[in-house]
Amino acid sequence: MDLTGLEPVERRSTAAIVADRLREAIMRGTFPPGTQLGEVELATRLGVSRGPLREAMQWLVAEGLLRSVRNRGLFVRDLDAADVRDVYAARAAVERAAGLLLIAGDRAAAVVRLSASLAAMEAAAGDPVALADADHAFHHELVAASGSPRLQRMADTLLVETRMCLAALQDNPPPAEDLLAEHRALLDAVRTGDVARLTTVLEAHMADAVDRILAPAGESAVSA
Amino acid sequence: MDLTGLEPVERRSTAAIVADRLREAIMRGTFPPGTQLGEVELATRLGVSRGPLREAMQWLVAEGLLRSVRNRGLFVRDLDAADVRDVYAARAAVERAAGLLLIAGDRAAAVVRLSASLAAMEAAAGDPVALADADHAFHHELVAASGSPRLQRMADTLLVETRMCLAALQDNPPPAEDLLAEHRALLDAVRTGDVARLTTVLEAHMADAVDRILAPAGESAVSA
DNA sequence: GCTCGTATGATTGTCAACAATCCGCGGCGC
DNA sequence: GCGCCGCGGATTGTTGACAATCATACGAGC
Question: Which chain A residue's Cα is nearest to B101?
Answer without folding.
Answer: A89
